[in-house]
């Protein structure tokens, strides 16, 4: 199982590297869940013929047949949610037009390994149907973006992940400071606290790990000291091994922390990212022969949508009066201010397999 996790995390960084490099060209913030993406692809895998299954699995970097892949994906999910079932919700849905007949074998396999829930929909009401599913899983989050499907779409794979969790050390004050973007300084609402954190600093980067309450999840931020050397500084963590090494170098210190408060929304059409991973067969004329009975034409779609809310508590923000940042520094600790672009990861610590699994990955480049 350890090898599967290592291969999956390697795939995660490959996807992340492509996404952040593309978004950075446009000075966009990014957030992605490789696990969410893989769930949708894995479900579709069970609907194609053996040759295509083998090709896609190999392109993803794995060396298993579909039966082994399904079994290991299921075990991986159980590892992912262990010790955080109260905070992390994961649901898979397959929506199909209500006049379609889904093959029994596909239903059986995907329910067993991916807990897929099958829902028939009327094309006229698809947006309302998806909005309701999202709201149910995310405790009422109102989704208004599922209106961009290509005409004729008759099969939708939907993975919904919702993380609602609090910091171990909550921020207790806020203020307005300059945040240096690639285009220059802009005003940014910042959060402040003084607590003990694991940190690491060298000539190129500053990093910190902020633990979440009652779980083995933590938030890791990595900021280059000089934006001129952004690519040079950050290439050293664009792999699972190097992220593990970075976390292993951290030491606990009393920190006066200044960190951006932000809320970002992202919706991606995954077609370009699928192509970047070499999965052309997933995009061009994919025949899902093993899903719908008697269908010669299936138009499928994956939309990846995420929202990240960085706030005082870790989930719902407190309204706390703004204060002057100069009054917040504690002389007994080191001062860390994340006041320019940085990468961030929400990481699961897998003690048994001795690795760190990034569940969510992102870059923060500018106040939105």
TrEMBL record:
Domain Serpin positions: 13-367
SMART domains recorded: SERPIN
Gene3D superfamilies given in the database record: Alpha-1-antitrypsin, domain 1, Antithrombin, subunit I, domain 2
Cellular component, GO annotation: extracellular space
InterPro entries membership: Serpin_dom (IPR023796), Serpin_fam (IPR000215), Serpin_sf (IPR036186), Serpin_sf_1 (IPR042178), Serpin_sf_2 (IPR042185)
GO molecular function list: serine-type endopeptidase inhibitor activity
Similarity comment: family membership: Belongs to the serpin family.
Protein name in UniProt: Serpin-type proteinase inhibitor 14
Organism, scientific name: Vairimorpha necatrix
Lineage of source species: Eukaryota, Fungi, Fungi incertae sedis, Microsporidia, Nosematidae
């Amino acid at each position: 199982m350890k090898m599967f996790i290592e291969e999956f995390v390697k795939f995660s960084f490959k996807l992340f590297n492509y996404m952040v490099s593309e978004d950075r060209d446009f000075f966009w913030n990014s957030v992605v869940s490789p696990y969410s993406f893989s769930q949708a692809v894995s479900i579709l895998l069970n609907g194609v013929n053996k040759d295509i299954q083998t090709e896609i699995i190999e392109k993803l970097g794995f060396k298993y047949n579909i039966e082994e892949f399904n079994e290991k994906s299921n075990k991986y999910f159980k590892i992912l949610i262990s010790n955080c079932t109260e905070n992390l919700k994961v649901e898979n849905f397959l929506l199909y037009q209500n006049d379609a007949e889904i093959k029994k074998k596909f239903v059986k396999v995907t329910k067993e390994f991916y807990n897929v829930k099958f829902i028939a929909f009327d094309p006229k009401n698809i947006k309302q149907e998806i909005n309701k599913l999202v709201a149910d899983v995310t405790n009422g989050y109102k989704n208004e973006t599922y209106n961009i499907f290509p005409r004729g779409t008759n099969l939708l794979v939907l993975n919904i992940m919702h993380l609602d969790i609090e910091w171990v050390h909550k921020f207790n004050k806020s203020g307005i400071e300059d945040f240096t973007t690639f285009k220059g300084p802009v005003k940014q609402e910042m959060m402040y606290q003084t607590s003990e954190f694991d940190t690491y600093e060298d000539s190129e980067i500053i990093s910190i790990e902020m633990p979440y309450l009652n779980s083995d999840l933590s938030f890791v931020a990595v900021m280059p000291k000089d934006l001129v050397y952004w690519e040079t500084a950050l290439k050293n963590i664009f792999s699972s091994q190097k992220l593990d090494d970075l976390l292993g170098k951290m030491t606990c210190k009393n920190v006066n922390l200044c960190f951006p408060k932000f809320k970002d929304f992202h919706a991606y059409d995954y077609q370009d990212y699928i192509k970047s991973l070499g999965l052309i067969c997933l995009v061009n004329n994919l025949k899902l022969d093993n899903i719908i009975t008697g269908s010669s034409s299936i138009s499928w779609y994956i939309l990846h949508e995420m929202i990240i809310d960085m706030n005082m508590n870790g989930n719902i923000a407190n309204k706390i009066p703004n204060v002057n940042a100069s009054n917040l520094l504690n002389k007994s600790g080191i001062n860390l201010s994340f006041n320019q672009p940085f990468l961030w990861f929400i990481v699961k610590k897998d003690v048994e397999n001795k690795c760190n699994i990034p569940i969510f990955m992102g870059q923060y480049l500018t106040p939105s």
